[in-house]
TrEMBL record:
The gene is putA. It catalyses: L-glutamate 5-semialdehyde + NAD(+) + H2O = L-glutamate + NADH + 2 H(+). Pathway: Amino-acid degradation; L-proline degradation into L-glutamate; L-glutamate from L-proline: step 2/2. This is L-glutamate gamma-semialdehyde dehydrogenase. GO terms for molecular function: DNA-binding transcription factor activity; L-glutamate gamma-semialdehyde dehydrogenase activity; proline dehydrogenase activity. The active site is at E394, C428. It comes from Dechloromonas agitata. One of its GO terms (biological process) is L-proline catabolic process to L-glutamate. Residues 176-615 form the Aldehyde dehydrogenase domain. Keywords: NAD, Oxidoreductase.
Amino acid sequence: RLLAAPEAIFAQFATHNAHTLATVAEMARARGVDDYEFQCLHGMGEPLYDNVVVAGRPCRIYAPVGTHETLLPYLVRRLLENGANSSFVNRIVDAAVSIDELVEDPLAQARLGGGSRHSAIPLPGGIYGAGRVNSQGLDLSDECSISATTDQLHVLSSRQWQVGPLVPGATPDGQGLPITNPARRSDVLGGVLDADGPTLELALANAERAAPGWHAVPASTRAAILLRAADLLEAHRPELLGLCVREAGKTWGNAVGEVREAVDFCRYYAQQLLSDAFADAGVAPGPVVCISPWNFPLAIFMGEVVAALAAGSPVLAKPAEQTPLIAGLAVTLLHEAGIPREVLQFLPGPGETVGARLVADPRVKGVVFTGSTEVAQRINRSLAERGGARLIAETGGQNAMIVDSSALPEQVVQDVLVSGFDSAGQRCSALRVLCLQTDIADRTLVMLKAAMQELRIGDPAELGTDIGPVIDEEARRRLLAHIDRMRALGRAVFQLPLPADCAAGCFVPPTLIEIDALADLHGEVFGPVVHVLRFGGDKLPHLLEQINAAGYGLTMGIHSRIDETIEAIRERAQVGNLYVNRNMVGAVVGVQPFGGEGLSGTGPKAGGPLYLHRLAEHGQVLPAMLSQREADGLCDPPLLFQRFAEWAVDSHRHDLAQLCTRYAEDSLLQTRLVLPGPTGECNELRFAPRGRMLCVAAQEDGLLRQLAAVLATGNRPVLVDTTLSRDVAARLPPELAIRIEFRSRQALSGLAGVLLASDDPALRFSVAAEDGPLIPVFTESAEGYPLYRMVVERVVSINTTAAGGNTTLMTLGA
């Protein structure tokens, strides 16, 4: 049509496709039109347009003009379009592509495939490989997809749920406590009967008797039960969704994610049980207490419970006081899947009574806990009184997102909304401190405040709700008191108004508070409150020092387009999960193993390769992890350890030299694992030293073995200041001796671990009594020290679409 009206339109055709160009030229010739031109982008299509110019046809060369905010997306789009292996621009310079192939009709080629997928691109259910099926999602934007679920939820909305202790032989009685909906306090879902003293005693006796038999069950049988449990969770999704919404106050999207994560835990740990690493049953661990939180009442509850069961331990499961109903249903489904009732017992009740009683009992050989740092400290001290019990604790964080001036504000705003306010800010990983470089702070805050006003706050039972309630009235009062305190200090506060119907529930409006320094915050603020801290571009190193000095190490976000900045932060950030150019929440099992360090937890990471390892007390790490290290070429041990190993050989200490050889093979320090996941995302697990390690041994050989373990994992050795340790250090190579620190046995502050050649109850108790991060104590076994526990796991999750997309897709063949 453009060529049909040359007297009215001067046609201009911008293309780098020879087929399109030839078609236009032939159409113009057939119509006798000579008044038109072609256009090409500066630096592109030059061989093609050399022929056009020779033919006498005008060609205008153009270039984009504008700011980097508009220019970069344009250039990236061009690069992706023209760099793709199917691009004409790409193929025309490929000598291996014939003219006949080049001019083939792309529609005809597409029809030949019949709509089938590319063999190298897995379907959603298969993104984790053949060994694990992805959990089922639910498209909340598709009315057809959710209609059946909404009908079932409507029927279930009037159901009264009743739960109590599930303990074989127990007949608890008494008055149950009501469980109410945090969005509508008048909505009573049902009731819970707490476990009393006799019930707890019976449960402990049951678990102790069941331990040998459950540990003897083959790993393949346990895995089959977990897979059946995953299927049952998906079959009962409507009931689970309804309880997530009404009992925990979760929005529909969060509820779907919660069920999926529970399913993923079952299938991930089942997959691990079927690997070669668990062919050996390991050490009989004994009963484990699992204490879970209310913010993920199904996912974390199931993650803790099924991991302990998979490792061969009977489980005493204590749910959060606020959310026992959904946990009770989950236990019922696990029993239905095949877990014996004496192997998994359900014990609802307060932490101060039920939890404390279970933790203090010597029959309990392990505790898995998710909650506050303060409670984790109390549990750790209780276990230290008797020694030998394992503790995995995941606690909170003062999570920061660092945004520099190169970041794209539109994406920053979107990710802040999700990271800070989704789930009403009640995620362990939620954003607490938004650090904005001064250059872009004002512009970003204007956009963020405008976007916040689009959020819908209200009853999460409504599909359109974005932000639901906080868990209870106590949490609401605590959050509002913090906001009022910051106002009283003169801090700028931006807060959304609450709709009138929110007065019936426990709602806190999304809030922004500008602060002057991280020191303004005295602990984690667990709710929809994001603190904003401005920083100058030259103050980034100081900002990182402040964040690390706070002692928390759970999650951190980075928004930057500068690779050097991202890498500099990654190298210095002491956090378990680092997210680049994406939101900071929603870690997926096996894709972003989750857990922190310092005040944020003990490790290993939930949904990661070492979690079952710790619970099952296996001495060696997964062989697949070590082979991956060698495949990535990262197998050189630390230089100081190499020098120590050489010294052992030169000193004719043959046993020590052999131990160094084995430790060099077993250390995870130089291991890098690329984790599976969806396209557009890169997830990687690496390991880093913990820090200063105190070595306590009465004999020289024992002290040298401890030094081997500490140096193999990249940690710094600290020796008790004695004649023995001074003498040993004096005989070491000078470059190593100068790195050794000496302390008294009482100087425990700042340690990242303690190695004991033999058990020392007094010292173990003193270590547990220290304030701050929980300090692990490592004792020597016949296989040596557990090197995998002497490093910290760190996951980096990068949104590759922020840098133009998944470029590997461009290299896929037809």
